[in-house]
Amino acid sequence: MKSGNINMRDPVMFRILHAEHHRTGNKWRIYPMYDYAHCVSDSIEGITHSICTLEFEDHRPLYDWFLNELGVYHPQQIEFARLNLSYTVLSKRKLIQLVQEGHVTGWDDPRMPTISGIRRRGYTPEAIRNFCERIGVAKRDSTVDMALLEYCIREDLNKKAQRVMAVLRPLKVVIINYPENQVEELDAINNPEDPEMGTRKIPFSQELYIERDDFREDPPKEFFRLAPGREVRLRYAYYIKCVDVVKDKNGEITELHCAYDPATRGGDSPDKRKVKATLHWVSVSRAIEAEVRLYDHLFTKPVPGEETGDFKADLNPKSLEVLKQCFVEPFVSNAKAGDRFQFERQGYFCVDPDSSDKKLVFNRTVTLKDTWAKIEKAKK
Asked: Alpha-carbon torsion 222, 226, 229, 231, what sign?
């Protein structure tokens, strides 16, 4: 009772509880308190180092005292600072509120910082280990920028992810001078970072889908993609020039009519003329329809609730956007849950367990935009 550490003053080892246990029923009435169960279970299980957060530092003398008095195998308790990530919460108390109140679909929602959530989103174990090695172990609580984690994910997936082309917001292109029933098989690189991954064939035909954002009828000065009268390169294919724009009765653009240059197969011009943009595309006749779920940060503020005291007030209403009618090249037709791809010019995506034989579902793991690289450059 004279100890300066309040945890050492007549510590309680067990409590009596007259209640039915969900596993053992009414067999037991006596239950060990955490401080006693912690060290004894570590000893029984042969734990070498019991890693705890800083709030257990004052409990370590009691941890050691119990084991010394019992005369059993003695693990070592080591404390470190709690990891906090920006734009999310890691408290179980807060996470369960998000689940129970329906702010997320469950513990495995890809926006959740749980093992099941980040696995479903497509994070790799190697990237997580690399992230942990970079941040190290500290004795002071701090918040790590989510951009560093995303950097580690990109770095890992860049080396191993299969490249494919996918159009998320499709705009139809008709190549008016291309044979109507012809289909070509063009060679595409599976991963420029790993030549051993080889190449694949992608079909090219008269009707294609391109990204709607890759066309402007009245382009600003800085816009170098497709526009009326302008020529661009189609990835692995040909140069095309927009010659006509087709609209519906409401003035909405429904398709583009373009002309292609047969001499530019593979993406290079014999006369050495240059274009300023290369667009990804998929063939209309061979494309695989898919649903794509675009995930963003779960919260709008780096530290949720810091200003208002209510972390849920900072929930991001745009943390999930679902695109129902996307098109992916046929290479992915046999993809299974957990497979990871880089959608060229889009980001890294993972096949979701909700996928079926009728329709694939992809989760965006991370965009190609590398915020962390810009942060590091600014520091230098």
From this structure: positive
Q: What is the CATH number of domain 6-80?
A: 3.40.50.620
pLDDT tens per residue across span 260-291:
999 999 988 899 899 999 999 999 999 999 99
Phi first, then psi: what are they for 83, rounded to 5°?
-85, 125
Query: Is residue 243 within 8 Å of residue 173, measured between CB atoms?
Result: no
pLDDT at 372 over 60: no
By percentage, how much of the chain surpasses pLDDT 90?
A: 88
pLDDT tens string 134-145: 988 888 878 899
pTM for this entry = 0.85
**Terminal CA-CA length for the chain:** 55
Backbone angle region of 201, left / alpha / beta, with phi > 0 → left and psi within -120 to 50 → alpha: beta
> Tell me, which fold does domain 170-279 have in CATH?
Ribosomal Protein L25; Chain P (2.40.240)
CATH number of the domain at 81-165+289-380, out of 1.20.140.10, 3.30.470.20, 1.20.210.10, 1.10.1160.10? 1.10.1160.10
